[in-house]
Amino acid sequence: MRDTEQTSGKVRAETERPLAEVWHSAATFKFTEGELDEIKAINIQGVRNILGFTLAVNGEAHHPLPTRQHRLQHRAGFETVPEQFHALPDSAFRSLYGWSKHHGETQVVEFAQKTGTLEAKIYRPPLSSARPAPK
What is the DSSP letter of 23? Predict the structure, then answer.
């Protein structure tokens, strides 16, 4: 947490205004019980750290600018449908990776709701491989 505070302080000192966007994409794909501490440190605590950093850099008064897509949808009369996010029991996951990513996403959703100052979006790109599927 100290690193987060030091980094956010340096960013605030160098910039004159809040960051417009912060993107976070980090995960470990490990999934065995013996790797649980590392999984939690990266996939759960890492999310906490980036949320704390974002709030520390932008402060409570940050109001995100609407995205270009949102403005276009609004002008065209389209409505965005928010995702319904549900906390799931630990038994709902087939792997520690899925469990940890869900807990990380839950933190993002709860943090955005609690602060009311940060717009949070979760993207779930599909995992892909250059290797052909087995026959």
Answer: -
Encode pLDDT of 30-50 as tens digits: 878 899 999 999 888 988 888
CA distance 48 to 22: 13
Question: Within 13 A of 108's CA, how many CA atoms are on the CB side?
Answer: 21
Q: Are 118 and 109 in contact (CB under 8 A)?
A: no
Q: What contacts 70, CB < 8 A, 6 or more positions away?
A: 80
Q: How far is CA 48 from CA 82, 109, 115, in A?
A: 23, 12, 14
Q: Tell me the longest C-alpha to C-alpha distance in the chain.
A: 56
Distance from C-alpha of 119 to C-alpha of 103, rounded to nearest angstrom: 18
pTM of the full predicted structure?
0.64
One DSSP character per residue, 65-121 reads: PPPHHHHHHHHHT------------GGG-SSHHHHHHHHHHHHHHHHHHHHSS----
Does residue 46 sit in helix, strand or coil? Answer: helix
